[in-house]
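testing teh design pipeline on a random one, pls ignore if ur not involved
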């Protein structure tokens, strides 16, 4: 698992943060929470190895989608113990590939 974590960390280190037009130019920060999201499911079990490899391969395209898209396609959320969680999905074609990204 460490090899995949190191690959993601390298991409995150190059990117660090980007302005996202869909959020009014608000900065999206690439940190340990994002690394964990790409490696683990919500219940803290490891994602399938092929899914992790796909996440790593598509990560640069997903970052590009966040940089370019002026709006998101989906929004969802839930509340747990009085804390509200919100999620957004973006979809675009980057380098001739359809990419769907969650933020």
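output:
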């Amino acid at each position: 698992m460490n090899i995949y974590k190191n690959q993601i960390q390298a991409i995150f280190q190059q990117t660090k943060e980007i302005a996202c037009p869909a959020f009014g130019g608000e900065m999206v920060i690439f940190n340990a929470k994002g690394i964990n999201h790409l490696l683990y499911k919500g219940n803290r079990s490891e994602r399938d190895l092929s899914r992790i490899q796909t996440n790593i391969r598509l990560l640069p395209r997903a970052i590009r989608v966040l940089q370019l898209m002026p709006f998101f396609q989906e929004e969802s959320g839930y509340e747990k113990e009085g804390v509200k969680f919100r999620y957004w999905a973006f979809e675009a074609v980057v380098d001739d590939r359809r990419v769907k990204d969650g933020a």
